[in-house]
Amino acid sequence: MTDDRFRKAEFAAWVGIVGNIALALLKGAIGWFANSKALLADAVHSASDVAGSLAVLVGIRAAKLPPDDDHPYGHGKAEPIAAIIVSVLLMVVGVEIGISSIKAIAHGVAEPPRWPALVALLISIVAKEAMFQYKYRLGNKLNSQALISNAWEHRSDVYSSLAAVVGVGGAMLGQALDLPWFYYLDPVAGLVVSALVLKMGYGLIMESIHNTMDHVLHREDAQELVQAVQRVKGVITVDDLRAREHGHYVIVDVKISVNPRITVMEGHDIAKTVKQHLMDRFVHVSDVFIHVNPYDPGYPYKNNVDSDQDDAPTLLH
Q1: Based on the domain organization, do 132 and 110 belong to the same domain?
Q2: Are 238 and 229 in contact (CB under 8 A)?
Q3: Closest by alpha carbon to 116, among 15, 49, 29, 245?
Q4: Which residues pair with 291 in a beta bridge?
């Protein structure tokens, strides 16, 4: 992880930590004062987001560590591992919200929430959507799965707050219309919040597990890498290229063919140029492994190389 990428990702994590602490305290205090089960459940959800943002911060800092003997390819997988932790926490909180709501329904609801609960929920929706947009865009820009996962956690908070708004608003409407059974809309909203949280958590954990495993980029995604290698001076053709995702970055394995009449040193220089070109042009490429083959003019390569080049002592094109 570059220093600039680390600074931006760390700042985003701290935005989530501070923002969620403020929202959790606000919704918790008002939820208690306004007697709203839905708002208290939403406050617990925001409190879990604090732990999630801390996990992201730990993952980002671990990913910044340089390669070592035990981790020769770096620590990039720390981010998707942090994303898995966030997802598990999200599902645990979803279960807790559901249990709390069921208990409230079973014990009965004597009165609806007070109006400050509705105000707190509207503030939460605006704040959470702003956090989602900021982290989601930054996560895509930095190719950080942990940030993207944490952003979707903020979006799940928006959904849960919307459900809570319906519950709180419906319960308050029941008081205005003298319909006491409307009061149950508040804990029922807590159940809806629980279902939304569990659904979101399941999707995130499956995606995070997928991203923890190495997988090769699809042909169309790797085509730009192939074209970049082909344009490097000295490369006759690209025999094979495989790009595998390793956490937030990509490791490239490529086989190139060069003029068989050049020296080993010249072939080595071409390989170094290819590696440097890929790492400079594609910010997500962290390492490149190159195998240099002698070009066989008898093999039916698809390339635009002139047939006269086999007679040249060095390859210049």
Answers
A1: yes
A2: yes
A3: 29
A4: 255
- Cβ distance 260 to 267 under 8 Å? no
Give the CATH number, domain containing residue 76: 1.20.1510.10
CA distances from 1 to 71, 179, 283 (A): 14, 58, 10
Can you tell me whether residue 304 is helix, strand or coil? coil
Q: Which residue is it, tokens 């790492």?
A: 279
Domain that holds residue 95: 3-213
Would you state the pLDDT for residue 110? 65
Cα 41 to Cα 74, 178, 245, 263, distances in angstroms? 39, 26, 38, 70
For 247, which DSSP code? T
Residues 48, 15 within the same domain: yes
Q: Is 97 contained in some domain?
A: yes
Closest CA to 185 of 175, 195, 199, 200: 175
The listed range with the strongest mean pLDDT (100-109, 232-241, 307-316) is: 232-241
- pTM > 0.70: no
**Same domain for 179 and 119:** yes
Number of domains in the chain: 2
Is residue 98 located within the same domain as residue 233? Answer: no
Residues 6+ apart with CB under 8 A from 235: 229, 256, 257, 258, 270, 274
CATH of the domain at 264: 3.30.70.1350
